[in-house]
Amino acid sequence: MKNVKLKPSFLLSGLLAIFLFCSCQPQKEKGWIQLFNGKDLNDWQIKITGHELGENYNNTFQVEDGMLKVRYGAYDSFNGEFGHLFYKHNYSHYKMRIEYRFVGEQAANGPGWAYRNSGIMIHGQSAESMEKNQDFPTSIEVQLLGGNGTDERSTMNLCTPGTNVVMDGKLVLDHCINSKSKTYHGDQWVTAEIEVYGDSLIKHLVDGEVVMQYTQPQLDKRDPSYQKLLPPDGNKLLKGGSISLQAESHPVDFRKVELLNLGDDCCH
Predict the structure, then answer these.
(1) What is the pLDDT of residue 267?
(2) What's the CATH architecture for 32-267?
(3) What is the pTM of this model?
């Protein structure tokens, strides 16, 4: 083929187009990062209802055998000490993957609804902004549930402490909404995934299958924390926030907690 001499302006336009394309791609080349390092909780903050930030009451959160464990062996009785383990960074656009399983027996006096119950809290308030006796951070809860061996009980449901979302074009005011996942009985490991695109779209996946999705996560005007958490510009939509893992009275193991940062709003 004959050599063709390209004009400088054409070369410049082509290089600019390549630069813009590359700069606006999700940061997949950086790969998944391990939020839990399998060794310690140095990158996490503990907040347990009724206790000061940083106090790991009764050694609720533990690291053993390369797993992050929620345990109640030191509790005589559970009295509303709901725990949340906050990662050190906030995120807005990302994918998250967690492998979890429920084990053992629920703590004495644990509420019935908390049997084999945990959660991943996203778009949450900071650990520092929680009140000492606050049960749950204002957030979007990706609810993790295990079966009782008999009844159907979906996982990767949605709960909304202090928040609301939009589904099928309508504002949803219900506190919890079930996903279309199957039930996972016993102590089996389950792979939970979340896709989060700021305030535009959130997807819940189990074993690679989308089981729920919704849009416009937002602060709930009915909640007492609304004015406290509303930003100065008055925009109640939640574009990002903290990520935390729950302890709600039933032992649970996490052996993988990883995240793929998709960057800022340029691509979504």
Answers:
(1) 34
(2) Sandwich (2.60)
(3) 0.87
